[in-house]
């Protein structure tokens, strides 16, 4: 049985690392993220797990010997001033599920590993799902050279943690895995609106991340007549509105420009360069959405005689989760008294990487309120305990 008190205590304990009140700033590949890994690894090694960290700073805690493994976990990093539950709750519930099975002396035919993925958010280096992408051999070339705002590269950050700075070396053979399970807060309002604590994920939306650079011409804001300008920010503004219009016009699609920088950035200078982020997601025809937005970037840039270049940072297709694992999770949630609905995830998750690598993959959502990626994000200990128990039931079914 799940120890609800222990789970609640650990939720508080983990949230203190990088925490300030209900806010958590525990960036990927930081010293705080490592402290969180040490804490979690310590709990599980005390229960007899073999704990190891890979070249991308993912940590695995293994129970059992050889054979196809059940992998279960989530991530330990957060966005800056994020909440206490995104990622962390999935690791905590995986730990609790495993501990409860060990304490009940459950006979497991297959080995089970708890994983805490590194740098899922990509808040620091712009590479989301970093750790799981590395572990499934899906990193693009040169990712280790990506730098944060202080000029520290991913390779540098890994070396500072004691690794060699080669995240691609984290690759493991996906055929060694019998299944991957992840519990995560919903980060949306559907479970709360339905009055249900748990859901089962059917699909994860396709996600496209890019950095767009618009090059115009910096010039004197007083002396340059309007017809002689190549204003990079005005062009970028038109693109921002086009992203909104295109996403609104398509079903199950969202598009966001959440970050923008203007150079040289002075009130009396026509903007010469503008760099902004692009986040495009869709549950269907994701490629069509990306194509339409990129076509509008090109046409707006050419109409305004500025130069546009698009640096694709990540592109993950729509991911359908495994129907058999979905059934296992349905049974597992039913056994804790919840008739869990099937939900599409609008957020990206580490689960995409095993799923796209052919590992049978499933996800449980736990009801959350107050939004996500904010200190208001909330999930109750009661809901978390139900989720952990469902996870334990699913592991038991898959591993015995
Ligand atoms: Zn997350």
List descriptors.
400 residues, alpha+beta, Aminopeptidase, Alpha-Beta Plaits, 9-stranded mixed sheet, 5-stranded antiparallel sheet, 11 helices, 33% helix, elongated, binds zinc ion
CATH architecture assignment of the largest domain:
3-Layer(aba) Sandwich
What is Rg?
22 Å
Q: Report the helical percentage.
A: 25-40%
Assign an overall shape: elongated
Bound molecules: zinc ion
Measured between the Cα atoms of the first and last residue, the distance is: 17 Å
Number of domains: 2
CATH topology of the largest domain: Aminopeptidase
What oligomeric state is this?
single chain
Residue stretches low in confidence (pLDDT < 50, at least 5 long) are none
Describe it.
The chain is of the alpha+beta class and 400 residues long. It has two domains: 4-205 and 318-399, Aminopeptidase; 207-316, 2-Layer Sandwich (Alpha-Beta Plaits), CATH 3.30.70.360. 33% of the residues lie in helices and 24% in strands. The chain has eleven helices and 18 strands. The strands form four sheets. Strands 3, 4, 5, 6, 7, 8, 16, 17 and 18 form a nine-stranded mixed beta sheet that branches. Helix 3 links the parallel strand 5 and strand 6 (112-117). Helix 3 (88-103) packs across helix 11, helix 7 packs antiparallel against helix 8 (286-303) and helix 9 (323-334) crosses helix 11 (381-399). The longest helix is centred in the last third of the chain and has 19 residues, at 381-399. The protein starts with a helix and ends with a helix. The mean pLDDT is 96. The structure holds zinc ion.
């Amino acid at each position: 049985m799940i120890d609800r008190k222990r789970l609640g205590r650990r939720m508080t304990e983990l949230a203190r690392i990088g925490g300030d009140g209900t806010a958590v700033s525990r960036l990927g590949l930081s010293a705080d993220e490592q402290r969180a890994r040490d804490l979690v690894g310590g709990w599980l090694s005390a229960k007899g797990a073999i704990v190891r960290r890979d070249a991308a700073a993912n940590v695995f805690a293994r129970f059992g010997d050889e054979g196809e493994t059940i992998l279960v976990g989530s991530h330990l990093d957060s966005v800056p001033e994020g909440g206490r539950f995104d990622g962390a709750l999935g690791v905590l519930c995986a730990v609790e599920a495993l501990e409860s099975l060990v304490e009940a002396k459950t006979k497991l035919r297959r080995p089970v590993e708890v994983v805490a993925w590194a740098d899922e958010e990509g808040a620091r280096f712009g590479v989301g799902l970093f750790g799981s992408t590395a572990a499934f051999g899906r990193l693009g070339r040169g990712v280790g050279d990506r730098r944060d705002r202080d000029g520290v590269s991913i390779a540098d950050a890994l070396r500072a943690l004691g690794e060699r700075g080669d995240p691609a070396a984290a690759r493991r053979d996906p055929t060694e895995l019998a299944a991957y399970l992840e519990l995560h807060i919903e980060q949306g309002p559907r479970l709360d609106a339905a009055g249900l604590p748990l859901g089962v994920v059917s699909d994860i939306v396709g996600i496209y991340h890019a950095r767009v650079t618009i090059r115009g011409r910096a010039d004197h804001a007083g002396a340059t007549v309007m017809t002689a300008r190549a204003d990079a920010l005005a062009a970028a503004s038109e693109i921002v509105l086009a992203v909104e219009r295109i996403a609104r016009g398509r079903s199950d699609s969202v598009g966001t420009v959440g970050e923008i920088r203007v150079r040289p950035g002075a009130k009396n200078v026509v903007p010469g360069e503008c760099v902004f982020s692009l986040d495009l997601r869709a549950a269907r025809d994701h490629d069509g959405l990306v194509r339409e937005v990129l076509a509008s970037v090109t046409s707006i840039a050419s109409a305004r005689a500025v130069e546009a270049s698009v640096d694709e940072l990540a592109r993950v297709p729509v991911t359908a989760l495994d129907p058999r694992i979905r059934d296992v999770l349905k049974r597992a949630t039913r056994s804790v008294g919840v008739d869990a609905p099937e939900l599409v995830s609008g957020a990206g998750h580490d689960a995409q990487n095993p799923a796209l690598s052919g590992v049978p993959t499933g996800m449980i959502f736990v009801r959350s309120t107050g939004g996500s990626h904010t200190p208001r994000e909330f999930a109750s200990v009661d809901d978390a305990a139900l989720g952990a128990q469902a996870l334990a039931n699913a592991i038991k079914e898959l591993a015995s």
